[in-house]
Amino acid sequence: MGYDLNKKLVIAISSRALFNLEDENKIFEEKGLDEYYKYQIENEDVLPKKGTGFRLVKNLLRINEDFPDDKQVEVIIMSRNNSATSLRITKSIEKYKLDIARSAWSGGSDISKYLKPFKVDLFLSANEQDVQEAINEGIAAARILPYENDEDEFSTQVKIAFDGDAVLFSEESEIIYKTQGLNAFLEYEKQNASNPMKSGPFAQLLRVISNIQAKYHEEQTPIRTALITARNSPAHERVIRTLSQWGVRLDEAFFLGGVDKYEVVKAFGADIFFDDQDVHLENTSKVTPSAKVPYKKESILNNI
């Protein structure tokens, strides 16, 4: 019987999201693929700096220490690099003592088609095209934004923060807000307060996280989640009722009503924050690892 990934939290992450490889990517963009491959091979033993996704991955993998016979978290490297250049990445994983055993190297081709075979719950990449393709396929995916912090922020509790509309929840309400304005949005939410919202691209990820949390006593859970949304009263009621209907756990919720998100995100101490709007991410990415969730290709939000 093969190794079963179905009952685990499976995170797929690109090498450029796990490690800071921006200088290497610049070589690729300015000098081409051959020079990039040459550089990676020649620098096989050079340890790259930690990337935006490193802290999240390291802290998530710690959870497996509580389940030595049944890992709860599986991290898989999924990269457009080829197998020849993979040695620098795998050696770096060993040096950083990350328990990552599985990887996929597509040699420049679309990586998103391999996400479902690996039962991926979350895909993190710095490649906008790969993230877009994953979202189009219905997989929770986000484009990692540059973030530099050399401090070792290892923690026994992983903190993950989400935006609401178009991230945890469907984009229906956000479309009304952007096309008809705030008053129409508030009226719509008031009228539909008892009607649960449809799932957004990250709803299933929250469900998987909730399943892991349920294995612990509440005060001992290794994952803490937060909703940080621009909604406020009375639009908060539908959110609360939706989460209750889904039967998922959300540890903290902030209904900011237009207040800047970045200070709340920083105070929460997020290992990563997911949002769909640049206006929020521009500031949060300066204080905490952040990632942008794109809309599906056919979404009208792309044209608003």
UniProtKB/TrEMBL annotation:
Q: Which GO terms describe its cellular component?
A: cytoplasm
Tell me one GO biological process term. nucleotide metabolic process
What domain of life does the native source organism fall in? Bacteria
Concerning Pfam families, the annotation shows:
5-nucleotidase
Supply one GO molecular-function term.
Answer: nucleotide binding
Protein name per the record = 5'-nucleotidase
Its ancestry begins with: Bacteria, Pseudomonadati, Campylobacterota, Epsilonproteobacteria, Campylobacterales
